[in-house]
């Protein structure tokens, strides 16, 4: 079992090293090179490899792993575009405040207040450890790429991707809990 996990780790690491740049370029091309969508390209690249990690057993015997990566990346970019469209339909931002709207009456009643983004952001980010906060700032605020972060922290791009995923998941859960309690 231990050698099997080691084999999976080696396979995954090689998969990342061989394909991450090409998948990122592909995602960037799908976003038509728009600089404001760089985050989407990076996020979709990251999520492609996270999904690959989840499916590692299947991918080890897959006849076209590279093709699987490209199809997964394409689907993630498309989903991101859909999400952006839906978000634009339901949200208005002005003067450091965010006004949320919804078609669902029950949800709308909960969300039709105006929230101070700075205050909400501070509450949510306060749950992060110092290391997580540094990673958050480097990736989301300073917009460092996964490869730059791997160099900075002296870890593999796979480890960076996993850590970013964990920070996002932690923040998502905190935000859900915050709005649940309102």
List keywords for this structure.
three-stranded antiparallel sheet; Arc Repressor Mutant, subunit A; Rna Polymerase Sigma Factor, Chain: A; single chain; 182 residues; mainly alpha
The level-1 CATH class of the largest domain:
Mainly Alpha
Going by CATH, the architecture of the largest domain would be Orthogonal Bundle
Write the CATH fold name of the largest domain.
Answer: Rna Polymerase Sigma Factor, Chain: A
Number of helices: 9
The first-to-last residue Cα distance is 46 Å
Q: pLDDT below 50 for ≥5 consecutive residues: which ranges?
A: 89-112
Q: What profile does the largest beta sheet have? A: 3 strands, antiparallel
State Rg: 18 Å
Number of domains: 2
What's the β-strand tally?
3
SS-based class: mainly alpha
Main-sheet strand order equals 1-2-3
Summarize the helix and strand pattern as letters: HHHHEEHEHHHH
